[in-house]
């Protein structure tokens, strides 16, 4: 290897690196340092400048993490890390034969121990290990060679080249595509030991250091289950042991059994569970988990948690449909695609993933998708999804490229997929496994022949491994796939952007006959005013950073702000350029409201009785930078208007309204829970947002797991043109409000309505006219109170208030962006959202606004 050609050669580590969950810490301890050099400047550690200054570096971590810690990182202008070599160094003591295990090296990596090259790698997504001899005082160097110079030396024949990924030669190496997609992801390059480095003793008999657990569950047709445990030791395994499976905090409902020695390094055992408690997505039941522990010489080892459930395609669904059944029950899947919880560092910690996934659950999501253009999350992500009752649609990290069938590539892909499947085998949240993202779509849209759309990677290799390791999950070859065109929405899974980038009317959400949208509804979603202010975007529409952070498709002459403006014009009948010029704050308010309206309308359509759709996943959950990104949660972990609107339409107990034209208005009632629910339905038609022109009330019992439909006309004893379809004279109303409440205490369905303080269980609004200025001013009022140290804001209105929103300088309302009926009030808990430790001195102060507040928001101040 010359100094000018430092590219790693073939993989040198053994292919049988143990996978599974790491149970006992075996981290290599010491102080890591990081050094950047010119590409190819040093062929080995001894060629490094002895006077160079090494900066402290966290491991596991990335070069971006080290630079951020050193104050050398700028989120707005990340440096091009792939142009340089990056060295890591650690000194440690030890003698004798050891195993060095590297759980993630990004990406062209060399490992040098005491000046000798012991390992080379060019695969970010698999673990590597090397057997080494320690010499007392040891120095370990990791060198991550510059990727871009190496890629320029690569040649290969591909049937198509993706447009969205730069450079297209990334096909030659296994690394994340994050940072390589101009227009939607900042150019943050993944370089460094992004997962942990372990030092193991292969001679230590029964040592817990470095032991890994492989867990697998099975649920049979009769409702009984089993849990299989393999414990893999770096050294000789104990001769035997015991393991136990317990459910819940009280440890009930479990079993005990023996562990026997399977081979010199492995203990194995299997336990049967009679009628176990099932794991459910939280929208449909409790995500019950069982704790697995092993009793070994020396004590008890916590082996993690498992859940038992079945996931299958709905065999009764119509031709072309894609619908999931969990534990035999059909589930409407809703949620969002996740990009990265920590783009610079790719951290695998509860602190990194917890806040985002907590908001996903709070929004009513029951599924999140990890797209193939991102990166495999760590154990903390899946563990949190297990506990939260969130299903995971997991793409493997293959996207857009023509991967071919080169034997070396296919062998490396098999190791990647196999290691991941074994490591995540314990997680009941993993429900759908997908070969990758947009490979079939890219081939079709770039004009290749139909016979070239499919690839053996997705049609043979990955499904074989899934069948072997995770037969309890549903496999999808690609996202999207299934139709005459791979991206056809009426067959299989699709990426639906009819309402969105393709600027189709809202009616297209039904016309397209969507079956399952594994991506949908991407808009440039405007964050709250405080996020903009904190990041210097006080004049956002005139700040060059604003447009730089608006997502766009590579090569397109438009961006996703243009898409949002199109719907502002079509739905709200405003002139976006003039409004932005003359009334910028009104423009931002309408921009936040219109995406809330679009998303809630589309999901109301897809969840209604009779819909062909069985799921939709919004693109995306979070922003990567502060600004008008795709995320429904901003980069400061604050929900945007879209998040609040989706939460209202994603509830397990739901009322929805649909305009059926001359057939009038239909009321759809959903109860996804396992128990029947008794509710009171109230339907009111309002004139001038205040006067009741027609109303109806009815008490109903909703069966468990049920979706039913009522004709609104059947609830009234006289004709009323709710959808203003017949147009006999001027409209008699401007708002229809449907709400579900707890039953009246005396069981009297004809009791007075819930106008006042009682919050509805669910609410849906129909507006015959959607113009931004169609309604009279709401006349809002706001009252602030502090009870037991907790701040509460009560919002009331004289007339119907459309898209009520709270703006506070340091607090945020737990509920926001909702509709409020005339004479009603809503009591909102305020959550502190400012600098740590300042809650006691930063009192709530702000305004309550609505789309129709007439320019007169309700102010409040402590």
UniProtKB/TrEMBL annotation:
EC identifiers of the protein: 3.2.1.25
Alphabetically ordered keywords of this record: Glycosidase, Hydrolase
Catalytic activity: Hydrolysis of terminal, non-reducing beta-D-mannose residues in beta-D-mannosides
Residues annotated as domain Beta-mannosidase-like galactose-binding: 52-195
Keyword field contains Hydrolase: yes
The protein's enzyme class: hydrolase
Entry protein name: beta-mannosidase
MF annotations from Gene Ontology: hydrolase activity
């Amino acid at each position: 290897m010359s100094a000018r050609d430092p590219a790693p050669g073939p993989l040198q580590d053994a292919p049988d690196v143990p996978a599974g969950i790491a149970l006992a810490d075996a981290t290599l301890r010491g102080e890591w340092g990081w050094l950047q050099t010119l590409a190819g400047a040093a062929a080995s550690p001894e060629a490094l400048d002895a006077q160079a200054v090494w900066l402290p570096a966290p491991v596991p971590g990335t070069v971006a993490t080290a630079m951020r810690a050193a104050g050398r990182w700028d989120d707005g202008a990340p440096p091009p890390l792939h142009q340089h070599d990056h060295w890591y160094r650690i000194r440690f003591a030890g003698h004798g034969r050891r195993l060095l295990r590297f759980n993630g090296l990004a990406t062209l990596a060399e490992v040098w121990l005491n000046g000798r090259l012991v390992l080379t790698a060019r695969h970010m997504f698999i673990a590597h290990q090397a057997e080494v001899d320690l010499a007392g005082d040891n120095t370990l160097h990791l060198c991550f060679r510059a990727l871009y110079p190496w890629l320029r030396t690569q040649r290969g024949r591909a049937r198509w080249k993706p447009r969205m990924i730069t450079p297209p030669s990334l096909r030659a190496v296994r690394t994340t595509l994050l940072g390589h997609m101009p227009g939607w992801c900042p150019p943050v390059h993944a370089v460094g030991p992004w997962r942990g480095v372990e030092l193991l003793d292969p001679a230590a008999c029964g040592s817990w250091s470095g032991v890994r657990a492989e867990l697998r569950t099975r649920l049979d047709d009769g409702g009984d289950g089993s849990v299989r445990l393999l414990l893999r030791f770096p050294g000789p395994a104990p001769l035997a042991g015991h393991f136990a499976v317990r459910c819940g905090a009280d440890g009930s409902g479990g079993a005990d059994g023996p562990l026997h020695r399977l081979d010199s390094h492995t203990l194995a055992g299997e336990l049967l569970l009679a009628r176990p408690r099932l794991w459910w997505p939280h929208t449909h039941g409790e995500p019950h988990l069982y704790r697995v522990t092993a009793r070994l010489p020396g004590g008890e080892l916590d082996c993690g948690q498992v859940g038992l459930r079945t996931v299958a395609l709905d065999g009764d669904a119509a031709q072309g449909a894609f619908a999931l059944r969990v534990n035999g029950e059909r589930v409407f899947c809703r949620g969002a695609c996740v990009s990265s919880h920590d783009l610079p560092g790719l951290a695998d910690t509860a602190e990194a993933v917890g806040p985002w996934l907590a908001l996903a659950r709070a929004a009513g999501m029951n599924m999140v998708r990890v797209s193939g253009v991102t990166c495999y999350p760590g154990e903390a992500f899946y563990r949190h999804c297990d506990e939260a009752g969130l299903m995971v649609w997991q793409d493997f990290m293959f996207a857009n490229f023509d991967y071919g069938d080169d034997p070396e590539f296919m062998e490396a892909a098999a190791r990647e997929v196999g290691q991941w499947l074994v490591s995540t085998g314990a997680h009941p949240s993993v429900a759908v496994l997908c070969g990758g993202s947009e490979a079939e779509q890219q081939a079709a849209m770039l004009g290749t022949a139909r016979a070239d759309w499919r690839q053996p990677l997705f049609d043979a290799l990955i499904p074989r491994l899934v069948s072997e390791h995770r037969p309890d999950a549903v496999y999808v070859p690609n996202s999207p796939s299934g139709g005459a065109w791979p991206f056809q929405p009426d067959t299989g899974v699709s990426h639906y952007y009819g309402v969105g980038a393709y600027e189709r009317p809202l009616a297209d959400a039904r016309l397209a006959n969507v079956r399952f949208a594994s991506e949908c509804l991407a808009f440039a979603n405007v964050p709250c005013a405080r996020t903009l202010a904190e990041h210097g975007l006080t004049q956002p529409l005139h700040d060059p950073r604003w447009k730089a952070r608006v997502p766009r498709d590579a090569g397109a002459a438009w961006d996703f702000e243009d898409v949002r403006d199109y719907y502002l014009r079509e739905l709200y009948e405003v002139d976006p350029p003039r409004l932005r010029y003359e009334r910028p704050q009104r423009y931002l308010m309408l921009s936040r409201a219109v995406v809330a309206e679009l998303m809630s309308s589309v999901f109301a359509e897809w969840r209604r009785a009779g819909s062909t759709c069985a799921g939709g996943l919004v693109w995306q959950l979070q922003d990567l930078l502060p600004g008008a990104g795709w995320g429904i949660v901003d980069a400061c972990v604050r929900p945007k208007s879209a998040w609040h609107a989706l939460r209202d339409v994603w509830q397990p107990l739901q009322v929805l309204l649909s305009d059926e034209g001359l057939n009038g208005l239909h009321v759809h009632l959903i109860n996804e829970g396992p128990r029947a629910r008794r509710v009171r339905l109230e339907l009111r038609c309002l004139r001038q947002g205040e006067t009741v022109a027609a109303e109806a009330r009815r008490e109903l019992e909703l069966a468990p797991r049920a979706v039913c439909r009522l004709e609104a006309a059947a609830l009234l004893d006289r004709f009323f043109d709710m959808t203003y379809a017949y147009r006999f004279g001027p409209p008699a109303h401007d708002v229809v409000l449907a709400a579900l409440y707890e039953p009246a205490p005396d069981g009297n369905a004809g009791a007075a309505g819930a106008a006042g303080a009682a919050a509805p269980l669910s609410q849906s609004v129909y507006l015959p006219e959607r113009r931004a200025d169609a309604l009279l001013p709401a006349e809002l009022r706001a009252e602030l109170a502090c009870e037991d140290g907790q701040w509460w804001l009560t919002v009331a209105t004289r007339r119907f208030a459309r898209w009520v929103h709270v703006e506070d300088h340091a607090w945020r309302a737990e509920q926001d962006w909702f509709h409020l009926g005339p004479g009603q009030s809503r009591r909102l808990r305020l959550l502190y959202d400012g600098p740590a430790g300042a809650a006691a001195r930063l009192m709530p102060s702000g305004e309550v606004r609505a789309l129709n507040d007439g320019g007169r928001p309700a102010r409040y101040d402590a």
